[in-house]
Amino acid sequence: MVLFNRMTLPGRDWRAARDWYVTHLGFSPEWENPQLDLAAISDASGFKIFLCEGESAANAQLAFALEVDDVERRYQAMTRAGVTFEHGPQKTFWGYGAEARDPNDYVLRLWDARSMREKG
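The structure assignment produced for this chain is given below.
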């Protein structure tokens, strides 16, 4: 058995990234080590992301799919909170959802199972 349970995302500002994921997507802060410019956050399933200072790999055209409870509602809430989206919920080559960028310029594809099934 193989489980993908953590990854590291380098970027310009680990604190800003931590706060963004916690505030807008509901990730939980796990721990941080300011001396190493490193923090860990986790999603509802326990998947951990280590955020650290370093050269962002966003230019490598990475994109992350994040399942949310309702993509339309999440899009509206994040837009009201000032998050800029590449596009709102719509049909795309990867299915139905919205695309945003995190503070380190990583592409986040937000989707939900119902909308994907009905509109994707």
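Interim note for the steering committee: The chain has a mean pLDDT of 94. The chain is about 25% helix and 40% strand.
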